[in-house]
Amino acid sequence: QVQLQESGPGLVKPSQTLSLTCTVSGGSISSGSYYWSWIRQPAGKGLEWIGRIYTSGNTNYNPSLKSRVTISVDTSKNQFSLKLSSVTAADTAVYYCAREDWVSGSYFDYWGQGTLVTVSS
Amino acid sequence: QSVLTQPPSVSGAPGQRVTISCTGSSSNIGAGYDVHWYQQLPGTAPKLLIYGNSNRPSGVPDRFSGSKSGTSASLAISGLQAEDEADYYCQSYDSSLSDVLFGGGTKLTVL
Q1: What is the pLDDT of residues A31-43, one digit of tens each?
Q2: What is d(CA A8, CA A57) in angstroms, rounded to the nearest whole number?
Q3: Interface contacts (A, B; CB < 8 Å)
Q4: Quick check: A114 and A96 in contact, CB under 8 A?
Q5: For residue range A90-119, what is the model confidence (pLDDT) as tens digits?
Q6: How far apart are CA A103 and CA B58, in angstroms?
Q7: Which of A24, A97, A107, B29 could form a disulfide with A112 if both were Cys (CB 3.0 to 4.6 A apart)?
Q8: Using the beta-carbon criterion (under 8 Å), do B91 and A107 form an inter-chain contact?
Q9: Per-residue pLDDT at B1
Q10: Mean pLDDT, residues B29-57
Q11: Nearest CA distance, A60 vs chain B (angstrom)
């Protein structure tokens, strides 16, 4: 059973960089059938896709966040990471990492439990 | 406002059938991209409910079904149960935005 777990600071100051890591267990992040994505959800609001990375390191980002987002992968640790720069209060949200099955139709079949990141001074 | 439009809320009594719509356009659902559905129980992560328009992952009851036609898709829940009370999201892809899209979500209340 694949499991994903987010980790990182729960509080980030405005203008600083948000950094989160997702650790994958129960399966290899190097499997070619999947992308690895970050998705966020502000309190009481809907889901927003942030971006994805493939095991090769190729990335795709939400155009609205592209200038501030970097997603990287460490296959030796079975982890992938998110950096979001120049954060504001609008970036306060629960951040989820998820596995995307791109072979069968690009849906998210496994999710982490989510981690709340608050942007505040 | 989301590119994929869902009703903010729907409700039904136990045992009834409800449907949740997801309306898109010619650059997403209408372009042939698959629609997927997720269930989010309060305080938990979303869970895949339907993939590829109408397929259920292992473990999802057959009370849940999905369909797609033209620029819209629908999630139907029959034999409504109290534990179905949750938020439901559709998801697809948009070629003009080059982006994964989620609908705005629908809150299902079981009366």
Answers
A1: 878 999 999 999 9
A2: 21
A3: 59
A4: yes
A5: 999 999 999 999 877 789 999 999 999 999
A6: 18
A7: A97
A8: yes
A9: 67
A10: 96
A11: 9
